[in-house]
Amino acid sequence: MTRPRLVGVAAVLVTSVLWGTTGTAATFAPSAGPVAIGSAALGIGGLLQAAVALPALRAARVALRARIGIVLLGAVSVAVYPLAFYSSMHLAGVAVGSVVSLASAPLASGILERVVDRRALSRWWMLAAGLGVIGSVMLCATRLDGPAASVSGTFWGIVLGLLAGATYAVYSWAAHRLMHEGVSRGAAMGAVFGMGGLLLVPVLVITGAPLLASSQAFAVAGYMALVPMFLGYVLFGIGLARVPASTATTITIAEPAVATLLAVLVIGERLTPLGWAGLAVIGLVLVLLAAAPATTLPRQNRSGLPLRGSMTG
Q: For tag attachment on the chain, is the N or C end more exposed, with fewer CB atoms within 10 Å?
């Protein structure tokens, strides 16, 4: 494995650990709804991304303006993702919402790279993505005792989970695409997440009152905005600059594993043998992605030159 790829894998893995703390953190603000939590976390976190990236954004303003379609697509996806993700878990239960959202994201990301970028996905990635879905299902199947409001609630929770997985894949692809086309990491992440944060501000104003009702709820909102979202997405951007979006989203399948371990250690939940087996499968996925070759052989056009976007991680 090359050093840049190792750094990228490590950065995304640390991001997954930080993201995995959000479910446990949210339990300390029970009065806040999923929309308030989501808009506070990624809304404030996105604006902070833009604030620290202001010099990079100024330097890249011409390049970003020329790619405004990609920026807007990524920003809208950033705004939709947290609302769909937290609402999915609220309606369908943590287990079902998590597995649908997080296990569908790598598959959506792979389809994007294959169809839009004409990127040949490696057998290593396909094996890791398949095992990741299996491990996530095994893990979340042990936590199906989380109540779902109704059959209708479960259905819409699954729909929102698929939407969350798709939007996560889209904004990851958009940021990676901007970097691939020469926009700096800071400018790409600042533009996509800053604009997404702006879109979430009105939602936060309307729904965020419970987060100000107590110092504990306010602290939870501050933690989620600053640590999992702001710091987490800084690290995620470092990872996206070094590995394909499909690889990055597959690595973040570690997030439900971290969330489950924290639920066991902090909240006192119990994990069945099936759940521990699921954790082991997810661990195998991370080993596979870390050990996988950095590229596959590029496809060639009739002139014998590599086609653009044919390299994969």
A: N
Query: Amino acid letter at 139?
Result: L
Distance between CA 2 and CA 215 in Å, rounded? 46
Which tokens hold the place of 270?
Answer: 């119990």
DSSP state of 225: I
pLDDT at 49: 92
Report DSSP letters for 7-28, one per residue. Answer: HHHHHHHHHHHHHTTHHHHHTT
Q: How many CB atoms lie under 10 A from the CB of residue 123?
A: 10
Task: Work out the average pLDDT over 274-293.
Answer: 71
Please, are residues 21 and 227 in contact by the beta-carbon 8 Å criterion? yes
**Crossing angle of the two packed helices 273-291 and 3-19, in degrees rounded to 10:** 150
CB of 191 within 8 A of CB of 65? no
Q: Are 168 and 88 in contact (CB under 8 A)?
A: no
Q: Give the pLDDT score at 302.
A: 37
Helices 34-52 and 68-92 meet at what angle, rounded to 10?
150
Percent of the chain with pLDDT over 90: 36
What is the DSSP-derived secondary structure letter of residue 209?
G
Contact 171, 120 (CB under 8 A): no
Angle at 181 between CA 175 and CA 186, to 5 degrees: 45
Burial class (CB in 10 A: 0-12, 13-18, 19+), 242: buried
Question: How many Å apart are CA 211 and CA 225, to the nearest integer?
Answer: 12
CB neighbours of 202 closer than 8 A, spacing ≥ 6? none
Give the Cα-Cα-Cα angle 228, 19, 292 (nearest 5 degrees): 120
* Distance of alpha carbon 168 from alpha carbon 81, whole angstroms: 6
Distance CA 98, CA 209 (A): 26
Whether residue 41 contacts residue 82, with contact meaning beta carbons closer than 8 Å, is answered with: yes
